[in-house]
Amino acid sequence: MQYRQLGRTGLRVSAFTLGTMGFGGTGWATPVGTIDVDGAREEIAIAKEAGVNLIDTADVYSAGLAEEIIGQALGRDREDWLIATKARMPMGEGPNDAGLSRHHIIRGAEASLRRLGTDYIDLYQVHEWDGHTPVEETLTALDDLVRSGKVRYVGCSNYAAWQMMKALAASDARGLERFASNQLYYSLQARDIEAEIVPACLDQGVGILVWSPIAGGLLSGKYRRGVAAPAGSRHLSDWDEPPVHDEDKLYDTIEVAVKIGESHGVSAARVSLAYIAQKPGVTSVIVGARTPSQLRDNLAAADLELTPDEIQSLDDVSGEPLRYPFWHQAKTSSDRLSAADLSQISRHL
Length: 349
Known about the structure:
alpha/beta; TIM Barrel; 2 domains; 12 helices; two-stranded antiparallel ribbon; 14% strand
């Protein structure tokens, strides 16, 4: 297992993170998994054996139950782990039960601490953008949590490049705690973040934590062109996260991943995970699983090294044309491109 520096901080996190959306598995999270405390203990043990040191969760996962399960499952072993959680989504029906106001952030952090059974959160992330709350209010509340010792580092999630840059500028101007990371959807199924967000993260020293790196199972290899999906599958039906805009391209990508997997004697899921883990700017890839066997297979991607030719073939089948102004920069300004620029332009030169 590799350990990578989280953004500009001195914190080192494993290249793969244990995801916990399936812990509890109530309400909307039921299709993801229904893992109880004993199941969580087993998955945590598997992750620890693989070298994982970071667990990611959120207050909204099963309305707080996932955090409670983590707290119970870790018990006295809490000090052996880094815990990341999030706040922003609705946690009640009141007018202040969602968002990134000082009120909601402080109350959310204190509630997460109680559920997790700990006195500090290693990485506290704002789960989504809040266009109604001044970013300075959000950042000041987060800074207060760090200064109080309740939070060690802060991050954002699902932030567009301009939203992240606005927050970083406000932090820098006011001497407030800076986002160490941005947790984002990134997979062979959708490489949107490469256009703006990855270069911004590289330029600003913000780590990238990846959620749903196998597109919620779409890239597992069980979804194939012309073949009925297995019984109980939630995708390509009424479950639309992530959305699939081009099924033909998705199936083409899966076929390449399956072929590469066969050459290594591994699953398409493992290929898809290894691909994302090797992309520029990626700090850690969050993996969750319904079963222990799935988790072991996913975490084994840490030992899979794809060749440059294999990466190129996956790039070619899943990539998109350069958007403006990047195609113009590739054509006219390739003599003065930074590492951030090259993260998306290099393969087009």
